[in-house]
Amino acid sequence: MRYRVLAVVAAAVALSVVAATTAQSSRAAGHTLTVWLQVDAQNGWPDVVATANNAFENSHPGWNVNVQYQQWTDHLQKFDATIAGNDTPDVIEMGNTEMTKYMAAGAFANITANKSQFDNSGKWLSGLKASASFNGKLYGVPYYAGSRVITYRTDLFKKAGFTKPPKSLAQFQTELVKVGNMQRHVKGFAPLYVGGEDWYSALSFVFDSGGSIAKFSHGKWHGTLASKQSLAGLKRFKAFFRATQSRSTATLDGSNPFPYTVFSQGRTAANYGPAWYTCCTGKKYAKVVGQFVMPSHSKGKPMPGFLGGSDLAVPAQSNSKSQAVAWMADFTNTANEKALEQKGNIPNATNLLGASVNERAAARSWFVPQAKHWVDVENGNILKTMLAQMLTGRLSVKQAAQTASQNIAQTLNES
Length: 415
Fold this sequence. Notes:
Elements: H1 6-20, H2 26-29, E1 32-38, H3 39-44, H4 46-59, E2 64-70, H5 75-84, E3 91-95, H6 99-104, H7 126-131, E4 133-134, E5 137-138, E6 140-146, E7 148-153, H8 154-159, H9 169-182, H10 199-208, E8 214-217, E9 220-223, H11 228-245, H12 259-264, E10 270-274, E11 289-292, E12 305-306, E13 308-313, H13 321-331, H14 334-342, H15 357-361, E14 365-366, H16 374-379, H17 382-392, H18 397-412
Parallel strand pairs: 1-2, 1-3, 12-14
Antiparallel strand pairs: 3-13, 4-5, 6-13, 7-10, 7-11, 8-9
């Protein structure tokens, strides 16, 4: 679904901020701080959320925190609606690729003067800090980052004769095929399960082959998925996908269960996704879950992984900005960031980094184009459509990539 254009969001913010700054909202008067977090936190680290809420409420007598968990698929539509209705949350979690559009529209409060309140703010990860900044001002607080790793069943790989992480993509594919053949008796079993049109995985193959999504030159964006290097990566992904998904019941319409759910049901031997997937792979397999870095097609190298992450921001319409800043400071303090690291995430500052598989996977990484309309590319399902077209054979890899490149360029160059 195409989002409202930037000008509409900006107009809604401009009108509503005037009203919001002249009167206290009923929520503020009720001493409730409304926080929107993604469901990842609810599933993966509810204890960290509870710790932050307790710290805030203890230091702010009379206040309570109302955490409302959102889904990545529709949280921006819901946020746009709250802007139009002058009823935004006080704190919102945003994917780092989603920040630019809203910062440019004036939808978030400028918290530059509050930077010193946040632990480790002088050593924030550069990728996250950049995604939370606009025109030299700070509009968000880095929350956590995440690369993508292989989470796998060590028992199945050991049974198939593999006890060490593979050193190349070709070796990994061979191992997965052998494991899949060994598990033929399990209905719908996929040696490596990918749910829906997982463009994060597919584009890792593109960058591993020296390709890219889009580049900016001569004053405008140009789609590059149909370049020689990008096509090589997409073709390699298609071959890998077919070899490892041949008996999977996965569909290409985005309606599949979470990969870790399929893992917990015993219908896959491996997932390629965030390191925190270990949280939800099921008690039955808790003792046989391992992780390693996804190997490149170049032997001995890791495949570049998407360095995603989340930021926290204070909507401009909030009447509880100082309290929102205080809660974000509690939520992202050193202790909580280290706790997030233990859950499989990458903490938000360089001085907190360790040597986990997740952090080693970030040694080679990629990120989406830094364009204010990138969020429209994501929510327009341009990349998902390309993958569905090429994986089902409706279009050749080259045809699907050419169409996607044209649509990406058109979207990124919108005024």
